[in-house]
Amino acid sequence: MKRRQLFRYAGASFLSVLGAGLTSRWHAAQAQASDTVTIQSLGHTCFRFSGSGRRILVNPFRPVGCTAGYSAPQGEADLVMISSRLLDEGVVEGLPGNPRVLSEPGIYEFTGMKVEGIESNHDREGGRRFGKNVMWRWNQGGLIILHMGGAAEPVTIEQQILLGRPDVVLIPVGGGPKAYTASEAVSAINTLNPRIVIPTQYLTEAADVETCDINALDEFLTLMEGTPVRQSTGSITLSRSDLPETGRKIEVVGYPF
To answer: How far apart, in whole angstroms, are the C-alpha atoms of residue 252 and residue 246?
Structure first.
């Protein structure tokens, strides 16, 4: 089944490339004209990406449990990507404007930009407990961005082919039943070999400690010892010149409490 899914994605990608033509040249020119992306933390796995004339919101949530102390995501977006729809995840009700919402695996086009949603499991039991997760991959501000949502199982060979090598990966590191532990995240990072790593979904002061079952960031940073780390609050702005020539670096984008 997974191999049929891989060939379906690959076939769609091939047809998309064949039909690119002028769109690809236009997008390349646009990337040169607007070659940065601002990544804003809205808490947990929710981030807003602004650049190349687009505002993209990934994984808006309902404040409860591990996110109880965050504010509900606000601000307009042109495109919203959802990795999963559970009680506290994938909440789009109340978002301002009329954004396009993507929530299923597949290949999409949005204002000349290709967006790929690759399916994974949202638990370590083949998706039987929490269902499926969608990892989102796109190019914005000249950077290949991969948001892994609530990935919880190792990256398969088929997924690795589809995901390629991202410039920037946003990856859960706090563990619990619905996402990578610190060591599982390190394993996925070594498989995908991104240039910049932004950890997500870890314990912060926003959590209701009675109901939140994830861990703090410390264990992940300890396991990644030797990798350069920069800590920021609120947002960061990146361009291709920020990518390390060798190795990788970690950008911790903290929530502005």
So the answer is: 19
Look up residue 196 and give its amino acid.
Answer: I
- Structure tokens, 127: 């998706």
**CA distances in angstroms from 169 to 27, 116, 199, 211, 235, listed in the order given:** 22, 14, 8, 28, 15
Give the whole-angstrom CA distance, residue 214 versus residue 206: 12
Q: Please provide the size of the chain in residues.
A: 257
Strand 249-254 with 229-233, pairing: parallel
In this structure, what token pair is assigned to residue 35?
A: 């070659």
Distance (Å, whole) CA 212 – CA 204: 10
pTM over 0.85: yes
**Alpha helices by DSSP H, the chain:** 2-18, 22-33, 157-163, 182-192, 218-223
- 239, with CB counted inside 10 A (0-12, 13-18, 19+), is middle
Angle, vertex CA 179, rays to CA 176 and CA 185, nearest 5: 110
**Tens of pLDDT along 117-144?**
999 999 999 999 999 999 999 999 999 9
What span, in angstroms and rounded, lies between the C-alpha atoms of 147 and 150? 9
| pLDDT tens profile 25-60 | 444 444 444 699 999 999 999 999 999 999 999 999
User: At residue 153, what is the residue type?
Assistant: E
**Token pair of 140 as six digits:** 């914005």
